[in-house]
Amino acid sequence: MSSSFKELQSSWENSKTNKEPSIGSFDILYKRIKNKEKENYFFYYGTIIILTFTLIAISLFFYFVAPVKEILSRIGVGLMVVGLLFRIFIEVISIYKAKQINSLDDTLKTTENIISFHLFRKTIHKVIAPIIIVLYTVGFYMITPEFSSHIEFWNLVLIDVSYVVIGIILFIVIRKGVRKEMQKLTEILKLKNEITE
Amino acid sequence: MIKNKTNLFETVYRQHHPMVFQMCLGFVKGDKETVNDLSQEVFIRVWNNLDKFKGASSYKTWIYRITVNTCLQYVKKEKKVSIIELENLTSTVETENEINYNAMKLYKAIGQLKKIDRLIIMMVLENQDYDSISEIIGIKSTNVRVKIHRVKKRLEVILKNDKNE
Description:
The complex is a heterodimer of chains A (about 200) and B (about 160). Chain A is mainly alpha-helical and about 200 residues long. Chain A is about 85% helix and about 0% strand. The longest helix of chain A has about 45 residues, at about 155-195. Chain A is elongated, with a radius of gyration of 25 Å. The model of chain A has no long low-confidence stretch (mean pLDDT about 85). Chain B is an all-alpha fold and about 160 residues long. Residues about 75-100 of chain B have low confidence and may be disordered. The interface between A and B is large, with 36 and 49 residues.
């Protein structure tokens, strides 16, 4: 061992003083753990809960409030419901993949699991999400002809236009999130190279 | 049961906090604000996995594994919190009398290494043997040796350049 490294090691040891946890730090940490447990629950299941409520609301609406009669409209409702069901299914797989990332695995395996998770998310964003949006949108516009005979024309225009506006806002928000995730994927791929090089 | 877990966790926390804190501090280049958050994050994961500890390795090695993984996954938050310039940091820290100037120089030097290399060299400084480092990182022991040799050389160059400045 070189002398300069020994010096380094002694600096390292010396800098260890005063790193004892302060009084009360354990209680703060314990509180944060409990808060984090709640946050994690919402992080994992929040989207599923919201999507499930949306699915139930849409199903109840078309069953009790506005039961559509024409074949075209029924197919439309079917497409919307299938789109949402598919989205929930994807979210369940996503949670399963996220839970595969285990802090107890070695660094290389953890890195590979994170890469696998982000590659899966990339497929969702680039392939599956657009399919679901198309299914939902086509379904939505398929029921409008039947709706037009029950509601005023301007209300229908308002609904259709608001759908487009909401769609654009969602597109911008989602795109921002996707970019962040893709950047993370690039960083983690670089990390894997650094581990194995 | 929960009380037992809490007691065990408190013991593990008190015993290993200095080591975790020190590694996190080296990883985030001495940024005190980030280090508290990061070291807490490590212990949150320790708590979440405490039931899974089977005693196959020592608590120390087990906690290293969690620390290394947590540090490497902390990328996003690390970017959110701005890294304070060394000059500012030094004055802040010196007035608080917590971290001495030599330690800051060391953290700065370690901070110039690649993220994985920072963690490897810190484990070496902590006197972890090559086999346990290889087990923690998941690469062959021979590769660890090569890496450590390379990192030591790089660190020596960094410190030499710092001295000349």
